Amino acid sequence: MTFELLNITPWVVAFAALTLVVLALTVVGVTDFVRAHRPVRLARHETIRGYYGRPALHH
């Protein structure tokens, strides 16, 4: 039995493309979330760690 790299290359390319799409969507989602909450955070004079750390620590 021989191992041919050509048989697995399309799967690797598809996985890399899917990974890039998911990464891009994640970055866009996080950016939108942070941008939407920035005015509220600034109005309260809170740091990023103080504003986002409190909900993470108090669940």
How does this model look, in words?
The chain is 83% helix and 0% strand. It has 59 residues and is an all-alpha fold. It has 2 helices and no strands. The protein has a domain at 18-57. The protein is elongated, with a radius of gyration of 20 Å.
In short:
83% of the residues lie in helices and 0% in strands. By secondary structure, it is mainly α.
Give the SSE map.
Blueprint: H1 5-43, H2 48-57
Task: Name the descriptors.
mainly alpha
Unreliable spans are none
Work out the number of β strands.
0
Structural class estimated from helices and strands: mainly alpha
Radius of gyration: 20 Å
- Indicate the overall shape: elongated
H/E series, N to C? HH
Reported for the largest beta sheet, the result is: none
Ends: how far apart? 54 Å
Which oligomeric form is depicted? single chain
* Helical residue percent band: over 70%
Strand content: under 5%
- The average pLDDT score comes to 82
* DSSP helical segment count: 2
